[in-house]
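Notebook p. 47: complex prediction with pyridoxal-5'-phosphate.
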Amino acid sequence: MSKFDVSENGFFGRYGGAYIPEILHKCVEELQKQYRQIIDSQDFQEEFNQLLRDYVGRPSPLYLSQSLSRTHNCRVYLKREDLNHTGAHKINNAIGQILVARRMGKKRIVAETGAGQHGVATATVCALMGMPCVVYMGETDVMRQRPNVEKMRLLGAEVVPVKSGNKTLKDACNEAIRDWCCHPDDTFYLIGSTMGPHPYPDMVARLQSVISAEIKQQLLEKEGRESPDYLVACIGGGSNAAGTVFHFLDDDKVRILYAEAGGKGVGTGMTAATLNAGTEGVLHGFRSLVMQDEDGQILEPYSISAGLDYPGVGPLHAHLVKIGRAEALAVKDNEALAAAFELNRTDGILPALESAHALAALHRVTFRPKDVVVVTLSGRGDKDMDTYLKYAPQGNCPSDYASLLKAIKAQTEK
Ligand SMILES: *Cc1c(COP(=O)(O)O)cnc(C)c1O
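Predicted complex, structure tokens below:
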């Protein structure tokens, strides 16, 4: 039991709940009744943990970066979710949910995807389990993220381009929900983050909580104590963040920093920093902070990183920030790019652009030499090569953050 556990009807403080059309009541209620029992069963835990170990490659390493530790004058560890099969943390959740779907007798999987990372993770587990898979993806994203679209198709998934709205993630969610409404009996909606109607935010957090369970054990081995002084994670919908903080929430000494996508700056309108710029509203079946205008029209979010480009945020995180348990920093595009190049130069690790937001957040904090800081590296950067090449400094790439920021600004202004 944690004081941050979801309430009976799906709320974290004011946020969460299940705001769904009548037609989905029966299947959402069925899931609400069964998910804890399924996930907590020995049979599920055995199959889940075996797949996490042998298929995903867990536990993911906890790596002490000497260079980041020097730079920030403390001890900086990276939780290496980038080393997972398919290149990010998303596979943990996809495996967990497909095992839940099978135990509920569902025959068909639908999912939404933005950049295609969750779509690829879902298509992957559907191939593994031999289940038909339909992935909804905004038409704009289909064109921007070709390689992931091809990957999903090769995995046997049907990718449906969504032509409504701005043709991005928000519209893909709407379409996936519409499909689910048409096939509530045989179809399972495999949501990619800690969002959607109850019980999804709680279920996804629990499936990703393997991240913080491992951090505890690994810190005990390496530092002689289970808890760090800081946890840092990037946040879109909030699944890698939820996994990172889950087992540390009740330990007030552990400070939690979220790096959300500031885009070009919170005041510019070109941002996806929901925790800083959002207001209370309902989107995709849950109440949370949402980017919207005075009439409740959803504002189009913007970030250089497709995985953080969402106009809402998981209700758990909205609650944690509201009550001051977690702090949300809006990290700009340029800062994320500089932090990505920095890690690549100093440690030979090219992070995903999303994860780079968490690394950039380190530069906003003054640490004490004894501080143990764990940053979750949610994914690897291969998928972002085009963007990185576009902004890479000309000539020799510097390795320090300040010079990198300057070089990137020069590139951007050109
Ligand atoms: C999708 C994605 C994210 C953002 O999603 P969360 O649910 O907020 O974790 C972050 N990092 C990577 C690598 C992703 O693919």
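Notes: The chain has a mean pLDDT of 96. DSSP finds 17 helices and 14 strands in the chain.
Next step: compare against the earlier run before touching the bench.
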